[in-house]
Amino acid sequence: ALLKSTAALGLLGGFGLSAFAAGKVKPASTSALIVVDVQNCFLDGGTLAVKGGNEVIPVINKLAPAFDNIVMTQDWHTAGHASFASTHPGKKPFETTKLKYGTQVLWPDHCVQGTDDAAVGKELALPTAQLIIRKGFHKDMDSYSAFEEADHKTATGLAGYLKGRGIKTVFVTGLATDFCVAWTAMDARKAGFEVYVIEDATRGIDLNGSLAKAWKDMTAKGVKRIQSSDIA
Ligand code: VGL
Ligand code: ZN
């Protein structure tokens, strides 16, 4: 079971039970680290670079040994994808449009399948990662979430994979906090997982207050906000 110990339990440390370190969260064999979209497109020099995005890499590399299970995601769009402003005549990046499933933020062309821009950041060192799930590959639909596409119906298969492997708790990291990390974390709750977001292992885009809103929405759905120093 996962331990979120109290200060009182921390006293047990004095008796040699160091796993009970005060206030620490210890990943179990039924926990998975999800590393969202740490790809060149979202890193320095990428087509949709997230400010400070590169700073998550050493944090995630350092967290990895604490996890028996690691899953990565890749934003993986077709050329001419519906989420690209360039696909919609007269539209500019960061404006919105209405698509069949609702309002869509329009982005610069990014993370196109098979390009170097879509490759996983080369400084990310996760040799033990067990699955890379690609998302956003349907031309007419976006997928911020690693679990469900933007219609909130089409599954990516990740919930089935994690459940099939006995995973109960997920720790979400990566880019961007207010889009793919937040949607992944909230859908993980919806799918019945216990969910932590490790804040210093994420960076946000913060479009019109989206970062503060994402934390508010995640908290309301029972997502727990922690720091990498909280991991035992
Ligand atoms: C993302 C915008 C567009 C993300 C992906 O990974 O957060 N954001 N596509
Ligand atoms: Zn995208």
Automatic annotation (TrEMBL):
Q: Which GO terms describe its molecular function?
A: nicotinamidase activity
What SUPFAM superfamilies does the database record attribute to this sequence? Isochorismatase-like hydrolases (SSF52499)
Indicate whether Phosphoprotein appears among the record's keywords: no
Lineage, top-rank taxon, reads Bacteria
Give the pathway listed in the UniProt entry for this protein. Answer: Cofactor biosynthesis; nicotinate biosynthesis; nicotinate from nicotinamide: step 1/1
- Which N-terminal residues, if any, form the signal peptide? 1-21
What are its E.C. numbers? 3.5.1.19
Q: Which residues form the Isochorismatase-like domain?
A: 31-224
Q: Which UniProt keywords apply?
A: Hydrolase, Metal-binding, Pyridine nucleotide biosynthesis, Signal
**Alphabetized CDD domains for the sequence:** nicotinamidase (cd01011)
Please give the family membership noted in the entry.
Belongs to the isochorismatase family.
Full protein name: nicotinamidase
The UniProt gene name for this protein comes to pncA
